[in-house]
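Thread: "does anyone have the structure for this chain?"

Original post by V.I.:
We have the sequence but no experimental structure in hand. Need at least a predicted one for the grant figures.
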Amino acid sequence: MPVSFAAMAPSMAACAIPLYLSLLVVSFLALHQASPSYASDTISPGRSLSGHQNITSAGGQFVLGFFTPTASSKNYYVGIWYNKISLLTAVWVANRETPVTDPSTSELRISDDGNLVLLDRSKGIIWSTGTAIPSNSTVAVILDDGNLQLRDAANSSQVFWQSFDHPCDTWLPGATLGLNKLTNQSQTLTAWRNKADPAPGIFSLEIDPNGTSQYYILWKMSRIYWTSGVWNDHIFNLVPEMNQNYIYDFQFVNSSTEMHFRYTVKNDSITSRQQCLVYALCGPFGSCNDVVKPFCKCIEGFRVKNQTEWDLGDQSGGCERKTPLHCGRNSSGNSETDAFLPLSNMRPPDNSQILATLGSDEDCESACLNNCSCTAYSYNATGCFVWYGALLNLQDQYGTDGSTLHLRLAASELQSSKSKKGVGTWIIVGVVVVVIIVACLAILLWRRRSRRMMRKSKAVGGSMVPFTYRELRHATKNFSHKLGGGGFGSVFEGSLPDSTVIAVKKLEGLYQGEKQFRTEVSTIGTIQHVNLVRLLGFCSEGSRKLLVYEFMPKGSLDTQLFRSNSTALDWKTRYQIAVGTARGLAYLHEQCRDCIIHCDIKPENILLDASFVPKVADFGLAKLVGRDFSRVLTTMRGTRGYLAPEWITGVAITAKADVYSYGMMLLEIVSGRRNSEQTEDGIAAYFPKLVATMLVADDVESLLDPRLGGDANLEEVERACKLACWCIQDGESCRPTMGQVVQVLEGFLDATMPPIPRSILLAETPEEIKFFSELSSEQSSQTSSCPRTQSTKSNSSGV
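Reply from O.Q.:
Generated one for you, tokens below.
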């Protein structure tokens, strides 16, 4: 795993360097268990990427495609990110400074000259690999180490360009960072500007361009505020911790032509952060704390100078005074003066000046108070130290060498130790003391709960987090914002202390014991896939059973398909939703240690993230309830209109029940309406019957949602309709597996004309009965009753 090098905030996907070279943010992100690859790893001259399309490395570790840095961002970038980490963590960005606003009209492709290029909607080049290529046939391949290579299509060893040679903000294991002595060109890591903007920021790391074997961390490409020291054949001599390394293997090369450093990781399960050693991370009068989030805060008497930049993770602007100092203001009297606030647990800032002639703390204070530019002083056995102007690199909870930093503030910012005498004063003091004691107790209780919730907030993203009912009630504001509900309970929106938005489901009718529930939840929590809603935590207190999920800002698929006031999804988005949902179900059926049958696939249980990536929801409830479906058949699963016939006949349920429900939902994705609904003239219409008719008539365009105005890939529409009819076959043995469904949608398998299911033959008029009976008889003589899969790579076709 890489070591993350962040300029501004730990939440950023940031540049990465080895642990012992970094005095910045160091983050090791643990990958989940390996799983099979999902999609092709190659962009060829005949295949490009656009919209939500992407390619995945052969082992499923990394993805290349379009992404947005934050949910609120309207800019899209082409980048590489981890496939198995739920929070999108980018490690490389192509168009760092030139985003696109609409990925559906942009295209990443192989150009005529063999380069990999990013085109905007007018087919102008936004970004290019920009290298001279002698070959007339190239491909771009994403590898499992995160490296994107442009190479000869016939000779994979002939590499013309690779992202490892052009790092952005992340130094991945196996990549080199160094200097070409022949061309004098060096590879430099540069942090993001902020968490919403991957453009180059103010922090960078590079090897010494003068040829010494050491690395520099630079601020604004000018100031060297840290160096590794030179390489002594074993370690960098200013990083002695490398001698105690149990995590990396190191290699340093210094030849006549090049000089570089490389590392590989032995163990990827460690998480470590050293945020506060970034120079001026929190800006003027900002204090940093490595222990808790947020890392930066304003010291007492100061407030955030630019809240917008601060919220984006850029705290370098720092803080400004709440109240101007008295010194320097015109005043006839001197009734109000500045005073000093002692900070005994604060790291002294940089750039102090020593006044060696002053021999006492009082003299040091007086010298600072008499200089309007003096903002702080400290006195110890060494002498009097004073600071002028802005204070940088303040660090909280740092420890002390016996001295105290005294911060200059306006007198009104401090509680005066001089109070008026008299009975009234003592009464006020008594009241204040009582109030303070009560407030302190309340604060202690609140802090205790806040620290506990903050720790759990930080744990989200790692292992399963156990919550108390009180914590979730507080997070959801007493379950006030209901998102929806279903057969197992209602879902409410909530927020953790670190602003992570969550969805909390209150389970109803679940009567498992504590131990069994926790065992099932921990098992479900390890099941992670980009198309499955992630379970973050749980609560189990007696009969109170709650599940905490990641929040999906675009809601459920039914709200996007069926609500008249919603903007119609374009066909490309719908098709990607169909593909993603199929991948998620295939993972549950075929790639988990135990096959998990969802049992209630419908648009209401398909949630969409900010980029309309589909995620199957409630997939874990089937496992929580158990596999004895016959015992709870009447109360447990399914929704009318999506139920497979075997549910009604009482036959044992298999994964093919999900396939049937998926087929019914796929038809609704095509039409944009429920399969069974009344037309404008009040006549009930059954869409699957219309699909069968139009497939025979070769008129699939009429099946498309009229709101799309015919703007769709008709080949994909026909493929989806045929596949859906295969999925809703009466006999489960005639239905494809979800793995085959994915292959058909991705074009690796063809779908022949399916038989007409008996449920569709239940027509309402004699003419329809005659038509479908003759059609069914004709098909029976032309095709087998069950699907047959065949690769599109052969000359024949058919599912």
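V.I.: this helps a lot. The longest strand covers residues 197-207.
O.Q.: and The two ends are 42 Å apart (CA to CA).
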